[in-house]
Amino acid sequence: MSIKVNGAVVREQGITFAIVLVKQHVVDNRAGADDFIASCGSLFPGMPIVLATQDHRGCFTYYGREDISRFLASIAPSRIPWREYTFAD
Question: How many CB atoms lie within 10 A of CB 86?
């Protein structure tokens, strides 16, 4: 079985991190969001992981490491190299 996620791996200011696109309800539940980030650790080993969600107007919200979340909130989402990642389970 494979797992597919939409996300990005970004290197900025000497930090390589992953962004994973999720539904709003994942970010709304902080404990669940933290669990989801932990479960993505094997998909993006050694990288900080930030969750991204988009509201009905297309505005993004980021959850995870605060410095990375602030950085992402300051740039246009079109600058993020989104792609689909497929991982074997």
Answer: 9
